[in-house]
Design a protein that fits this description.
Shape: globular
CATH architecture of the largest domain: 3-Layer(aba) Sandwich
Oligomer: single chain
CATH topology of the largest domain: Rossmann fold
Bound molecules: 6-O-phosphono-beta-D-fructofuranose, magnesium ion
Number of domains: 2
Number of helices: 16
Helix content: 40-55%
CATH superfamily of the largest domain: Uncharacterised protein PF01937, DUF89, domain 3
Radius of gyration: 21 Å
Distance between the termini: 21 Å
């Protein structure tokens, strides 16, 4: 990277949210993961005997050691676990060693690396166990989040059904409004992920998500939604098949709102298929894994509410008729590296190629945004297209609520106005942006 670029966010800056996260929030998240393992001693004893219980205890010991390394800022050590991407991670670590004077550690390194490393270490510990290889320490929290989301999802499903029944009566101007409703519902569903709240599940999902959109409008600091709609209409007019890619973030209300958006795009014939990208390992507490993807669709197809259940069943069918696609695991490992997306072309050309045939890539959430802009301390008025540093496999957009102290693409004065109203505007998850870079 050139010297003229802004510096990476890092816990080395004591006033930063990165510092607060590494110092206070990450140890809490790790403690909760350890607690989740504790609860497994008995079940594994029953399932696998004494060896099972011993295995869980070994995992707990290793995670406690990891927490100690984090809290005492020990230098990072090379990964020696059996996960496929271990050597990729060690390459990143070596690059880091060559780029900074002191030994890389949680508090001295770029925040992106430190934070991702903690989640990757947890997965490595589980992978090296005998019995807990596929254990997800955040599974219970994600499942509770989905249960709590059901009332809000029923409202959205009713709204979606009404729109599709009236579809033939809807003029194009109204179609834009409907598009914005589902796009913005998907955006705002990113407000509270479980890593921001260290696993606490706030009751925001019980609100009527469609009605709340209007109230949230003043918190939307940049809104390229109309340009995104026009872009999709233009591709449609050219007669090409439209595949929209969604790089998914959190399980529960957020992922379900994303599927509602996907369904709207298909029903309104704006898109012909949707390709979802999810994580190979448990990630940032609430991110959707392959297992969560299946679980969500099955759960929604079995809810008591008929409308929501019929959508759930339709979505399972869509996986069969391939109007819903899920990108395969071998093309999903890059999402759980610490690399910014500007490095995808070099380090995962196959994923880059897969994305190239997309009409639009929708990146959900804060971490995807941070990776799009390389987690650098950009000036808030720098154009989004500049901040992606050449990452442009296809037209793309970001739907993100602000949960880290970096933002780009704002009109002059917007950042100052928000800061006057709320000193935590960059990290509270209350404010949001919809930014697009459409000239790939
Ligand atoms: O601080 C909140 C945080 O842990 C950030 O570090 C990270 O960017 C974000 O949560 C994850 O949020 P999201 O689920 O929106 O990507
Ligand atoms: Mg997340």
């Amino acid at each position: 990277m050139s010297d003229s670029l802004p510096k990476p966010l890092s816990a080395r800056y004591k006033e930063s949210f990165a510092y607060e996260t590494v110092k206070d929030r990450m140890p809490v998240i790790l403690t909760k993961a350890i607690d989740a393992c504790h609860k497994q001693i008995e079940p594994y004893h029953e399932k696998c005997g004494e060896k099972g219980a011993e295995d869980v205890k070994k995992v707990i010991g290793q995670m406690s050691k990891l927490r100690n390394e984090l809290m005492t800022d020990k230098p990072f050590v090379e990964l020696d676990d059996d996960l496929k991407d271990a050597s990729e991670w060690n390459d990143c670590l070596n690059e880091l060693k060559n780029s900074q004077d002191e030994k890389p550690s949680y508090f001295t390194s770029p925040w992106l690396f430190s934070e991702c490393m903690m989640y990757r270490r947890i997965s490595g510990i589980l992978q090296n166990s005998d019995f807990m290889k596929s254990f997800d320490p955040y599974q219970d929290q994600k499942r509770v989040a989905l249960d709590n989301a059901i009332p809000g999802l029923i409202t959205m499903a009713d709204h979606l059904k009404k729109i599709s029944e009236e579809r033939n009566l809807i003029q194009d101007t109204e179609l834009l409004k409907c598009f914005q409703t589902f796009l913005k519902a998907s955006l705002w569903s990113n407000r509270f992920d479980l890593s921001l709240t260290a696993g606490e599940n706030k009751d925001h999902e019980s609100h009527n998500p469609v009605e709340t959109l209007q109230e949230l409008e003043s918190y939307l600091l940049a809104d390229n939604s109309e340009a995104i709609f026009k872009h999709l209409c233009n591709v449609k007019q050219s007669g090409n098949k439209i595949r929209v890619d969604m790089v998914i973030d959190n399980a529960g209300f957020e992922f379900s709102s994303d599927i509602m958006l996907a369904e709207f795009l298909l029903e309104s014939k704006i898109a012909d298929s949707i390709q979802f990208h999810v994580k190979c390992i448990p990630w940032f507490v609430s991110d959707v894994t392959f297992e969560d993807f299946d679980y969500t669709l099955k759960t929604l197809s079995q809810t008591e509410n008929k409308v929501l259940a019929s959508y759930g069943k339709l979505w399972l069918k869509r996986l069969q008729d391939r109007t819903f696609l899920i990108a395969p695991k071998e093309n999903s490992q890059f999402w759980t590296l610490s690399r910014p997306y500007s490095e995808m072309h070099k380090h995962d050309p196959k994923l880059y190629q897969r994305l190239e045939s997309s009409a639009l890539i929708i990146f959900k959430g804060d971490m995807n945004f941070r990776k799009l802009v390389s987690d650098l301390a950009w000036d808030s008025e720098i154009p989004f297209a500049t901040s992606v540093l050449g990452f442009s496999p296809a037209p793309l957009c970001t739907l993100r609520t602000l949960k880290a102290d970096v933002v780009v693409g704002l009109a002059p004065g917007k950042a100052e106005d928000a800061a006057k109203k709320d000193e935590d505007w960059m990290v509270s998850g209350k404010y949001a942006i919809i930014l697009a870079h459409l000239d790939a």
